[in-house]
Amino acid sequence: MLLLIARRLLGALPNLFGIVVITFLLTRALPGDPAAFFAGPAGTQEAVEQVREKLGLNRTLPEQFWLYVKALGSGDLGQSLSTGQPVREELLTRLPASLELVLASLLFAVSIAIPLGVAAARRPNSWVDHACRLVTTAGVSLPTFFTGLLLAYVLYFLLGWAPSPIGRLDPYLTAPPTITGFYTVDSVLAGEPQLLVASAKQMVLPVLTLGIFVLAPLARMTRASMLAVLSADFVRTARASGLSSGTVLVRYALRNALLPVITTMGMVFSFLLGMSVIVEKVFAWPGVGSFALEALVASDYAPVQGFVLTMAVLYTLLNLTIDLLYVVIDPRVRLGT
Amino acid sequence: MKNDTPVAVLAAAAPANMLPPPARKFWSHARYVLSDNPVTMLAAGLFAVFVLLAIAGPWVAPYEPLATNVGPALSAPSASHWFGTDALGRDILSRVIVATRIDFVIALSAVLASFVTGGLLGACAGYFGGWLDRIVMRGCDMVMSFPLFVLAMGIVAALGNSVANIILATAVVNLPFYIRVARTEVNVRREAGFVEAARLAGNGDARILLVHLVPNAMPPMMVQVSLNMGWAILNAAGLSFIGLGVSPPAAEWGIMVAEGAGYIISGEWWVALFPGAVLMLAVFTFNLLGDGLRDLIDPRRRT
């Protein structure tokens, strides 16, 4: 099993290489002269030459690529023009905010989608099934920025249930001491229930927005794969052997039905990471996405590229986790190879 | 439409008058499938309305979409301004109608570009195999290792902020899906009897590929197109919402929602709601149509 995990880890290496190649190409595809861009609008001819020398733009493309990889290896993602900070620092301090949002949304989506899909598959053409179909078709059609605004209008402006949809915490509260960077976890660790409630409240709107979007593919897949499994012979045998319907449903059917659902997780993560940019903008959430957007508006390209790279690496890691999860859940994968 | 099952190949060799005309067969089949699912009919109707608005938008719109102060600024929906007016006193209904064209043009050209390029690349990779196949598939993997929206963002940011680059970025991130479908469809038929026959009859590779293999890959490719259209519109609107692509004075659904975002907190809901709702309806239409088309073409995947 350890060997298998090691093989999966190695298998992710070509992916990482591909990511580096594409981000490199994107860096070199900047409109006009990249050196002029990185030197900034106030850069003199001399400064531009200096940047060109520093970035190695006067060398051949393979040499440039080697320099780029070397810089990445030492964790250098360049400087942000607008803040003057190294991009890596900015990304690292903001990453927990984005991760907290993405993971909470995933948790929310999974906890709704799987029971919904199972219930729909158990009674096809019942009202649950129709509700599930409506949710899955409507869910993928919703523009996240629109749902976000709609939820803010209804839950904040009309009903007043949600707090002001700006940022991670009320401005008059101070953030808990940083341990994990997740405000909810940190406030538990710091023993401040008030902060936990405040930060959780602040997360309701963005998490709902992101969650509703990714709920659809998950519920759809659960329903389809549950339907297939429930009509399989081994489920019939289990029922005929007199096992309780709960045992059949959960232990026999669901465990098998979850495998394709886990496979769709790859797509779900792609959606989550992509849409989190939009959700962060809508709710002024101080994550990596809103950082990249601020930089984009200021034509500050190093942060944008660092952001694209970070997201791609994160995505690869998440997919790797799924692969490993597969090994744990499905004995056939373990024994087959 | 070509078919490769042995029976169909035999049937195709039989005299033509023994078979019902394929066109009529298709339509009766279409009627049969559609009668089972009225929702698809509804979607087709909505689609027709959208296409009409995309073509005739500027003439249908009651006001000039860019003209400011055609009514009092930020006035709620009323008889003279059905969707209300925005902060500059522009008529939102007119802007929503006129925006149909640009959103459809972006989505259609992006999908068309990835359909043609991806189809050809995938077909060649599946037919010739070898190093070409390996390079193409490796390229696919590279694109797929990014969250798609983030890659689209990166491409537009790197190439410059224009509508053409939005189309290009949307096309690139969708390319792998088309390549994979085309490659699989061509690959499974590469050694089929009808291909061997065509080869023995002296057809060259290009002709076999384009005349005998690609048409067979069309049905699943078409399903991919219709399922992809909704996503392409969402992607384009999302990019312009975050400030990429179409620039502000122009009417586009994503930008209009972005412009209305600030007013939703203070209660002027109509500025963002109507463009957002119409965008949602457009995506919904495409998704329903895609499901309908899939039922029509590929009965096995019917749910």
Q: Helical proportion of chain B?
A: over 70%
Helix tally of chain A equals: 14
Number of strands of chain A: 0
Radius of gyration of chain A: 24 Å
Question: Radius of gyration of chain B in whole Å, from Cα?
Answer: 23 Å
Count of distinct strands of chain B: 0
- What's the helix-strand series of chain B? HHHHHHHHHHH
Percent helix range of chain A: over 70%
Major β-sheet profile of chain B: none
What characteristic shape of chain A results from the CA principal axes?
globular
| Secondary structure category of chain A | mainly alpha
Distance between the termini of chain B: 25 Å
Biggest interface reads: A-B, 54 and 48 residues
The string of secondary-structure elements of chain A, in order, is HHHHHHHHHHHHHH
User: What is the average per-residue confidence, as pLDDT of chain B, rounded to a whole number?
Assistant: 77
Summary?
The complex is a heterodimer of chains A (337) and B (303). Chain A is built from 14 helices and no strands.
Please describe the structure with a list of short key phrases separated by commas or semicolons:
heterodimer; A: 14 helices; B: 303 residues; mainly alpha; elongated; disordered N terminus
Description of the structure:
The complex is a heterodimer of chains A (337) and B (303). With 337 residues, chain A is mostly helical. Helices cover 77% and strands 0% of the residues of chain A. Chain A has 14 helices and no strands. Chain A has helices at residues 2-28, 34-39, 45-55, 61-73, 87-122, 127-141, 144-158, 183-189, 193-230, 233-240, 245-282, 288-297, 301-329, 331-336. In chain A, helix 7 (144-158) packs across helix 9 and helix 12 (288-297) packs antiparallel against helix 13. The longest helix of chain A has 38 residues, at 193-230. With 303 residues, chain B is mainly alpha-helical. Chain B is built from eleven helices and no strands. In chain B, helix 4 (92-128) packs parallel to helix 7, helix 4 runs antiparallel to helix 9 (205-241) and helix 8 packs across helix 9 (205-241). Chain B starts with 5 loop residues before the first helix and ends in a 6-residue tail after the last helix. The relative contact order of chain B is 0.13. The model of chain B is unreliable at 1-19 (pLDDT under 50). The chains are: A mainly alpha (337), B mainly alpha (303).
